[in-house]
Amino acid sequence: MKIISSTAYRAGRVVQCILAKCTFAVVLSTIISACFIGAAVAHDDNHDDEHSGQVTLTNEQQRLAGIEVEQAVGSGFSLQTTVPGQLLNDRARSIVIAPQLDVRIIHYDASIGQSVAVGDELLTIGGREIADAQADFVLAAQELSRIQRMEEGVVSDTVRVQARIEAERRRAVLRSVFMTDAQITALLSCSDCIGQVQVLSPMAGKVQLSPEQLQYSAGQTLSAGTSLLRVNDESTLWVAAELPVRHRLPLEAGQSVVVNVNGELVTGEVLSRGHYVSSVTRTEQILISVDNRSTHWHAGQFAEVHLPSAEQQGVLVPDAALHRQEGNQWRVFVQNEQNTFSSVEVAVLESQGGLHLVSGIEPGARLVMKGAFFIASELAKDGFDTHNH
Fold it and tell me: Any stretches that span the bilayer, and where are they (predicted)?
């Protein structure tokens, strides 16, 4: 039996790895060619597009290549002027379900992460304090109705006013446990309804439960003011950014900033500036609003905020948006129409952390943020095929 030396064995393994990589490259090339063969046929019928640096791809080809197109953001920003931040729920689009009486959880009707509309069932609660509050309202409403039926002069105006105030006070208590006006009125004709409340969603959004709230179970009694769940509309989020004292920027409400979360860029608007420096962090808080309908971020995520800078003019793009052509020219792809992309030369002004500040394109242009490499490959292939007809 032959004994193979360790050196020969390692050499054999290297050869096997090289062959495996070559095989993978051939397979990948075949897949890409198959995905984009339709674009090559389209260019055979229109050579003008090829020579002008354009390529046409079907929706299916764009999906297979993972091409993502977004609006260019960030005019007049610097990669050097950045501050950390954290995403928060928009307080105007968020509501906490926290009844102001001691309650017993009967059952949850909505689950965590569920999308709800106005009036959808969230949970059912009950308990002695809720039953007492409902009974007190019914008695106060009946007393008010009795007094209102009396003729003028039989009871004084003071008594009438007191009865009306007492009924409204009892109604306000029921509203504090999230009973709707329709549910409150129904108590007057439904004695069996006393003792529990079916809490309906007061707004559209997603149901969110904290780790502590996930521990609550049916039959558990919770004290007044305990938060049972939250409904958030995440179409808009806030960013709380921490501005160090050394940044003496004239940043005020209404100005634009660029928010970066894991390489996704969105233009945000400054809502307010704290004008108060924390004695612990030595920073001033800036509150920013961002449109979250296309990014689908969540409260709690960390962000990087790019602040305005008069020194640099350009737009921010990630690594995946750039590609090189002959002569080491940096270029990006701009979407002209739904399925047509043009290659545009840009100058890289700054680079940091996977982001680049570039000039040569206008803010608002529709840029290919992911998948530029595949479009560049298809464009190069089309050019090669054209000159070899």
Answer: 18-42
| Cα gap 326→335, rounded to integer Å | 22
pTM attached to this predicted model: 0.67
User: How far, in Å, are 73, 145, 199 from residue 118 at the CA level?
Assistant: 34, 31, 11
Q: Provide the 8-state DSSP code for 59.
A: H
Dump pLDDT digits (tens) for 62-74. 888 888 888 877 6
Domains of the chain, first to last: 36-74+315-386 (2.40.420.20), 84-90+234-307 (2.40.30.170), 93-232 (2.40.50.100)
Beta strands in 49-160 (DSSP E): 54-56, 68-71, 77-89, 94-97, 103-108, 115-116, 121-126
List, for residues 86-129, the tens digit of each pLDDT value: 999 999 999 999 999 999 999 999 999 999 999 999 999 999 99
What is the pLDDT confidence band of residue 76, given thresholds at 50, 70 and 90? low
- pLDDT tier for residue 369 given thresholds of 50, 70 and 90: confident
Backbone angles phi, psi at 356, to 5 degrees: -135, 135
Show Cβ contacts of residue 45 under 8 Å, excluding neighbours closer than 6 positions: none
**CA dist., res. 289 & res. 265, Å (int):** 13
Q: Are 187 and 195 in contact (CB under 8 A)?
A: no
Residue labelled with tokens 């969105």? 266
Tell which residue, 303, 261, 238, 312, has the closest CA to residue 89: 238
Top mean pLDDT of 81-85, 299-303, 312-316, 317-321 is at 299-303
